[in-house]
């Protein structure tokens, strides 16, 4: 990725196949994000206005960022990513300038996807812990800049805005109006089938022993996120190496030992 004063631009290498589970969600994102960029002519022919923004919400470590990158890769769009928390922490005025600059760069590099992580930090509910009638708070100023930029995106510029949050209730209703984030998608924690696929993905390059049964491991990793499962695979490999630095493969007992030493990130209330 190339860093230009706080904005990260990259050509994403992540594909839809690198994301386990979430079959329906991937289909929805393909149609909402990839199609308008790849088949702009078809949308124009039928007079369909594509969504301009998609809000992804769900617990941390369950692939919101990866989904945005995969959409960019599939659409062969430039990928710009910004962190809400980082914008929020800047000096007064700097965050807004960075936002405007990002939209400007995205226009020049179109087709583009702009991804906001921790979007609730940029777009807190207005008035919440906010100004008392005086100057707008940093959050309010960032929010109004974002709204102005999104409203200014002309149709068929090939720019799509994706945002991610763990706290959708903290997002200002103004962001959900038509022409802004008009598609809101929940990214749930992986179910057992999803976990099996995630384990398959993250062991693709590992040499596994014949006794390793990934679906059985998936069955006993109930509250694990995708990121946790990725960590589990790495840890199993490390256990094997610690046992014997010239190990030839990673076996079931290495996975079991890794499981004993790792705790899942999710709580029961997050998987309901
Ligand atoms: P956060 O809210 O913390 O930013 P996130 O929801 O954006 O989290 P990602 O950053 O996309 O999550 O995921 C973290 C890592 O976990 C990724 O690098 C990816 O390798 C792995 N991961 C998560 N979900 C999946 C999945 N469904 N399939 C494959 N890998 C996954």
TrEMBL record:
Coiled coil region boundaries = none
Q: Which residues of the full protein are shown?
A: 269 to 540 of 546
Family membership, please give it: Belongs to the AAA ATPase family.
Sequence ranges assigned to domain AAA+ ATPase in this UniProt record: 50-191
Protein name in UniProt: Cell division control protein 48-like protein B isoform X1
């Amino acid at each position: 990725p190339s860093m230009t004063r706080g904005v990260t631009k990259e050509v994403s290498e992540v594909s839809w196949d690198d994301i386990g589970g979430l079959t329906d969600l991937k289909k929805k994102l393909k149609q909402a994000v990839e199609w308008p960029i790849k088949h702009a002519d078809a949308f124009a022919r039928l007079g369909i206005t594509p969504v301009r923004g998609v809000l992804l919400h769900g617990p941390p470590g369950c692939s919101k960022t990866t989904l945005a990158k995969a959409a960019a890769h599939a659409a062969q769009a430039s990928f710009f990513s910004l962190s809400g928390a980082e914008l929020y922490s800047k000096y007064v005025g700097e965050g807004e300038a960075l936002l405007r600059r990002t939209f400007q760069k995205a226009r020049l590099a179109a087709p583009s996807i702009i991804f906001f992580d921790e979007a609730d930090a940029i777009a807190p509910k207005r008035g919440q812990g906010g100004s008392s009638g005086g100057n707008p708070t940093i959050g309010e100023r960032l929010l109004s800049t974002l709204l102005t930029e999104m409203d200014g995106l002309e149709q068929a510029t090939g720019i799509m805005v994706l945002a991610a949050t763990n706290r959708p209730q903290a997002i200002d209703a103004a962001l959900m109006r038509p022409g802004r984030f008009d598609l809101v998608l929940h990214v749930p924690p992986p179910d057992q089938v999803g976990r099996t696929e995630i384990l398959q993905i993250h062991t693709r390059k590992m040499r596994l022993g014949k006794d390793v049964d990934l679906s059985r491991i998936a069955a006993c990793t109930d509250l694990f996120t995708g990121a946790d499962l990725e960590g589990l695979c790495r840890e199993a490999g490390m256990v094997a190496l610690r046992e014997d630095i010239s190990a030839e493969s990673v076996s079931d007992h290495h996975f079991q030992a890794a499981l004993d030493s790792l705790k899942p990130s999710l709580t029961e209330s997050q998987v309901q």
